[in-house]
Amino acid sequence: MVYLFDFPAFFILLRQTLECIVILSVLFGFIDQLLPNNDLLKRKLKRNIWAGIIAGIIVAMLIGVLFVVFYVDARNLWREIKLIWEGTFYFIIAIIITFADFHLVRINQWEPHLKDAVNVYLEKHQICKKWALFLLSFSLVLRAVFESIVFIAGNGFSTSRISLPAITAITIGIIIGYVIYCGSLAMNNTTFFTAMITFLFFISAGSFSNSVGKFQTKIGKIDKNDIIWDIDCCISDGWSFLNSLFGFRTTATVWTTVGYFSWWAMIIIGLLYVHFDDKRRVSTNNK
């Protein structure tokens, strides 16, 4: 009997697609919300995101082709560097999202009062330099596409059985992303900015926790005394999607937990600094 639809491959690809689509949809929605009357700058920022997406896909495909060509040696090498690769990319994503989010916080605070100055601020501010949005979309797509290729090739899924699951998973992911994007346009600015900034902070904290977990596993320093909890439920692909996006884990160690809450502590300290610095600026301007 011939099976044309491989469900494991479908769920793997859907999870990886959703990881990227959810974040990218929020970014596109943010640009439309913040720049309703500046089509030129809006197009420029979206082009940067699309450039990162396309570059990520191309680079991942090239690496993936090399992986398939040198399958046996590459598979052994991948086993050695997999955790380092994932840990490094999670850390990079955490850094990029956190710094971007702090810039968005200030835009969110100033926008109701300085609407006419926002476009000038964006054109000069670091968050809109082409490498910021490009690197974020590039790193997200590169990791997701390359890991999908490696996982599918490494598990021996046949080409005939993954074509339909791949098309279905990507289509569903795009539909979900479009729904999220349309939903962002329906919200008012304050609600959307608050929801988006909070969402991205959760992703950055989860990414840092995942980075710590990958490096801790690589150096082999996990024993039963390091484990805070270890639960048997929530191990399906849906839950692993939450792990990739928010850092949710069924097995939490001291270091992953400390890393997660330390990152949140840094975020809170940063937000307090931004709050009091803005109050100081307002007070100085009123004198």
From TrEMBL:
It comes from Ambispora gerdemannii. Keywords: Ion transport, Iron, Iron transport, Membrane, Transmembrane, Transmembrane helix, Transport. Belongs to the oxidase-dependent Fe transporter (OFeT) (TC 9.A.10.1) family. One of its GO terms (cellular component) is high-affinity iron permease complex. It comes from the Eukaryota. GO terms for molecular function: ferrous iron transmembrane transporter activity. PANTHER family: IRON TRANSPORTER FTH1 (PTHR31632), PLASMA MEMBRANE IRON PERMEASE (PTHR31632:SF2). InterPro entries: FTR1/Fip1/EfeU. Its main location: membrane. It is a multi-pass membrane protein. The chain crosses the membrane at residues 12-31, 51-72, 84-105, 131-152, 164-183, 190-208, 252-274. This is 12586_t:CDS:1. It is found in: Membrane.
